[in-house]
Amino acid sequence: MCRAHLIAPSVLSADFGRLNEEVRAVEAAGADWLHLDVMDGHFVPNLTMGPDVVRAVRRATSLPLDVHMMVSDPGRYAPRFIDVGADWVSIHYEACPEPRGVIADIRARGARPSLAVSPDTPLEVVAPSARDLDMVLVMSVYPGFGGQQFIPGSLAKLEDARRLRQRLGLGFLIEIDGGITVDNAGAAAQAGADVLVAGTAIFGAPDRGTAITAMRRNIAAVAAPA
Ligand code: DX5
Ligand code: ZN
Question: Which residues sit with their C-beta closer than 6 Å to ligand 1?
Answer without folding.
Answer: 10, 12-13, 35, 37, 68, 141, 143-148, 177-180, 197-201
